[in-house]
Amino acid sequence: MPLDWTILIAASIALAYQAASLLASILFAEKRRVRYGRTPLSSLPPVSVLKPVRGLDDNLLEALRSHMRQDYPEYEVLIGIHSREDPAWPVLEQLQREFPDRPLRIVLSTTQAENAKVGVLIDLARLARHPVWLMSDADIQAEPDYLRRVTAPLDDERTGLVTCLYRPSASSLAGRFEALVIATDFIPSTLVAPIVGVREFGLGSTICFRAKDLQAAGGFERLAAYIADDYQLAKAITSSGKRATFSEVVGDTTLSDPGWRDVWRHQMRWARTIRVSRLDGFAGLPVTHAGLWALLCAATGQWPMALTLWLARCAAGAFAGFVILRHWPALLLAPLLPLCDLWGFALWCGAWLGRTAWWRGRLYRLEADGRIRLIGEQSLAAKNRNGVGMPEKVEEHAQGRQR
To answer: By CB neighbour count within 10 A (0-12 exposed, 13-18 middle, 19+ buried), where does 83 fall?
Structure first.
């Protein structure tokens, strides 16, 4: 088959993907409009909010404060951390001083797991008192009706998991670029997932579920050896036949002003995580890189397809980034969004060239089935290690008044 025909076929597939991406974003926007027009249910189940913390993220205190100010009838917040020497510890102590009468517990986690975050979640789960659990990244900032809206879909017993999109922001140039990529590429690709038949989707920014559903699937212990704990959790719950769904809520997160090397490491970890978690989907990712195929079409003289594909990528990225997330750079830089696909293609190529990934100052080796093995740490993270094994004891630093 001639090269130009091969490029044209690939470009056509990329164009179909952009159309699906735009459709998925439009459907989400409409569903969100309808849901926000409704009053959240008033009789909601008690919720345990599980918050693993490691390191001092930007705006960490304000993000945690937002979870203490929820308009919700009965909930508790459990924050887990591995060491008092963690730079986030003073922030947790300040939070406790500010909310002495709120249902807050700070837990020193002792469970060791290859995925340190899951080790913390195992300890928090042992102390959680309520039937619905919500786990979210430490830096997610939430509106006062966050819990009401995220838990509402669980009123339907067929729903096993609720997850949320998130709006990234940063002040460094590298961080702003990563935020743009997340808003205009990662978020729309996430919305496409259920349309193309992917059932096990969940974003670590927020995942809400019934405790009994996870326990029936093996609990957090089942996730302890995997890097993609959010994906594995969704897979565990949806494997029983229950469905995952998106909430209309969009959380806010602040990227910690990374440099270009940090952004590359972060994005490479994501790419290699997808590779070992869903190899079939990862192998086909280049067909979603519309900007790459638009440039190749232009290079082979197929200008109508090149222009169509370029415009489709701009429209899909701008709609998801601006209309859904209110991320202004997605609108202002829309004509340049296809160039981000060259970055994505470079990551895809790099992901095939190794099996290591940096995560929170730790270097892991990723196995073919998605399991991980710790092979090194940066000096700051090394100070926070607490031995080996998986002890049962959990040290609880403080406990506020329970509702």
So the answer is: middle
Report which of 316, 318, 311 is spatially closest to residue 333, judged by C-alpha positions.
318
Provide long-range contacts, Cβ within 8 A and 24+ apart, for 300-304: 300/3, 300/4, 300/7, 301/4, 302/4, 302/7, 302/8, 302/11
Q: Is residue 77 part of a domain?
A: yes
The residue range of the domain holding 54 is 29-279+354-396
Question: For residue 285, is it within any domain?
Answer: no
C-alpha count within 13 angstroms, C-beta hemisphere, residue 213: 26
* pTM of this structure: 0.88
What is the rounded (10 degree) CA torsion for 247, 252, 258, 263?
20
- Contact in structure between 325 and 164 (CB atoms under 8 Å): no
C-alpha 288/C-alpha 166 separation (Å) is 21
**Reported confidence tier of residue 58, pLDDT bands at 50, 70, 90:** confident
Angle 164-170-172 (CA atoms, 0-180°, nearest 5)? Answer: 155
Separation CA 289–CA 124 (nearest Å): 40
CATH number at residue 89: 3.90.550.10
Q: Is the pLDDT of residue 381 over 80?
A: no
Convert 49-59 to b/e letters by CB count within 10 Å (16 or more is b).
bbbbbbbebbb
Q: What is the CA 121 to chain-centroid distance, rounded? A: 16
User: Is 295 part of a structural domain of the chain?
Assistant: no
- pLDDT tens for each residue of 92-147: 999 999 999 889 999 999 998 889 999 999 999 999 999 999 999 999 999 999 99
